[in-house]
Write a structure and sequence with these properties.
Distance between the termini of chain A: 56 Å
Radius of gyration of chain B: 19 Å
CATH architecture of chain A: Orthogonal Bundle
Largest sheet of chain A: none
Radius of gyration of chain A: 21 Å
Largest sheet of chain B: 6 strands, mixed
Helix content of chain A: over 70%
Strand content of chain B: 15-25%
Distance between the termini of chain B: 40 Å
Oligomer: heterodimer
Strand content of chain A: under 5%
Strand order of the largest sheet of chain B: 6-7-8-3-9-10
Structural class of chain A: mainly alpha
CATH class of chain A: Mainly Alpha
Order of helices and strands of chain B: EEEHEEHEHHHEHEHEEHH
Structural class of chain B: alpha/beta
Shape of chain A: flat
CATH topology of chain A: MetI-like fold
CATH superfamily of chain A: MetI-like
Order of helices and strands of chain A: HHHHHHHH
Shape of chain B: globular
Chain lengths: ~210, ~260
């Protein structure tokens, strides 16, 4: 009956969701690291600027940010709007980079001073201390909060529909408008499966790092 | 010629003067213990020797050569400070082993990093790494841990961790090995095994500077004892003098309180 065409449509929508998910990660993971350096900077103005930025981004809804990025250029500057998917990515990357930066910061600041000092008195260079001593400890510390945030991102991709990006929920909604409820549940299964895979992946990473304690 | 000579060392943190001009020297093969109440500047002194803090004034000389002059440090590059540090080893109060490495790797890591700077590293890489590992195995054997080479720090007791830390510091063959209250984080039973290792190092004439609250140990193991209070050296001399015939009232006071408890 309708199962096959619905499946195909939902898969297309899910493809869009996945594009948002992966591209957001690709850009926000490194950007978050840069922001975390800013919020740990010894130069106070940069530190406060960065922390204010993080406060604003974390303190307002992603949906609002998305609308500002999409409608803002046109309404404020009379400029052309970004293509929809670009607008989504800009808003998501900035938003998630702010969250990731705080996770990185907690991970980096969580490494005891003594670890750096032990490296120093053993004549190691700063980069050797970073790569050989602290990096893996930071990674171990941030895997659980990162997993949480990344799983939240999977579901946040559905916010793209507020500017009419045809992600999977919006596609499912078009069927519901025609009187079918099950495509909504069906769409939910896609999320469940995807988050399930991510959970397995993060559990695997945690297990791989369980041979030492920090 | 003393292996280490410290003259007029001063260090303040903001308005607080922690070291107010420290002088002492130590000959090769001697063990020097620093005793004194908490907050007297003992740990800061050790940290200055290891350049974890930079002294504001005074000089540090090793083997007759001034390697540090207070206020000068901005002139030195990171690489130079690194080189100066290698005259000293430091064993921390809370061990600071690298948790993601085995006991053996904790001991070899820094040596492997330093070996890369050797001109013959590329040509003799395998040999050099084998030497480093051989040396590390011997050191871990010396501290009684030859059966724990593959253990990670969390699998070791505090006493065992501290012994790995001692082996790690020895691996770079420092001129002077410093201990910052090496047994303060350990219970009495584990304290004994760590003190035993330090004692055996003293018997092998390892040059050591030991900050400790273990008075009996300081008396047994040291050639010189330094009593510090309020950022100055109140009294120094052979253990017999300091412990049995202190010349300064403050020293007597401090030691009486210790014996009382």
């Amino acid at each position: 009956m309708k199962f096959i065409p619905v499946t195909i449509s939902l898969l297309e929508g899910f493809g869009v969701s996945c594009v948002i998910f992966f591209l957001t990660l690709v850009f926000s993971l490194p950007l978050g690291l840069i922001i975390s350096f800013g919020s740990m900077s010894r130069f106070a103005p940069l530190r406060w600027l960065t922390r204010t930025f993080v406060w604003v981004i974390r303190g307002t809804p992603l949906m609002l940010q998305l609308m500002v990025v999409y409608y803002g250029p046109g309404l404020i500057f009379g400029a052309a709007a970004f293509p929809k998917l670009t607008a989504v990515l800009i808003a998501f990357v900035i938003n998630y980079a702010a969250y990731f930066s705080e996770i990185y910061r907690s991970g980096i600041e969580g490494v005891p001073r003594g670890q750096y000092e032990a490296g120093q008195v053993l004549g190691m260079t700063k980069s050797q201390i970073f790569f050989r001593v602290t990096l893996l400890q930071v990674i171990k510390r941030i895997v659980p909060p990162m997993a949480n945030e990344i799983i939240t991102l999977v579901k946040d991709t559905s916010l793209a529909r507020v500017i009419a990006v045809m992600e999977i929920i919006m596609v499912a909604g078009t069927f519901t408008a025609k009187g079918l409820i099950w495509p909504l549940f069906y769409a939910g299964l896609f999320y469940l499966a995807f988050c399930g895979i991510l959970t397995l992946l993060f559990n695997y990473i945690e297990r791989k790092l369980s041979y030492f304690r920090v | 010629m003393p292996v280490l000579e410290v003259k007029g060392l001063k260090k303040s943190f903001g308005p607080t003067a922690v070291l107010k001009g420290i002088d002492f020297s130590i000959e090769k093969g001697q063990a020097l213990s620093i005793i004194g109440p908490s907050g007297s500047g003992k740990t800061t002194l050790l940290r200055c020797l290891n350049f974890l803090e930079l002294a504001d004034a005074g000089t540090i000389s090793v083997n007759g050569k001034v390697i540090y002059r207070g206020g000068d440090m901005k002139k030195y590059s990171d690489a130079e400070i690194r080189k100066k540090r290698l005259h000293f080893g430091l064993v921390f109060q809370n061990f600071n082993l690298f948790p993601q490495y085995t006991a053996l790797k904790n001991v070899t890591l820094a040596g492997e990093m330093l070996a890369r700077e050797r001109p013959d590293y590329r040509a003799r890489k395998k040999e050099i790494l084998e030497e480093i590992e051989e040396n590390a195995r011997a050191l871990l054997d010396q501290v009684g841990l030859s059966d724990k080479l593959g253990f990670y720090p969390h699998q070791l007791s505090g006493g065992q961790q501290q012994r790995v830390a001692i082996a790690r510091a020895l691996a770079l063959k420092p001129d002077i090995l410093c201990f910052d209250e090496p047994t303060s984080a350990l219970d009495p039973e584990l304290t004994g095994e760590v003190l035993k290792v330090i004692r055996s190092l003293a018997e092998k004439n390892t040059t050591m500077v030991i900050v400790t609250h273990e008075m009996q140990f300081a008396r047994d193991v040291s050639d010189i004892v330094l009593f510090m209070d309020g950022g100055v050296v109140i009294e120094s001399g052979p253990p017999g003098q300091i412990f049995d015939n202190p010349r300064v009232t403050r020293t007597k006071q401090f030691l009486e309180r210790y014996n009382g408890t």
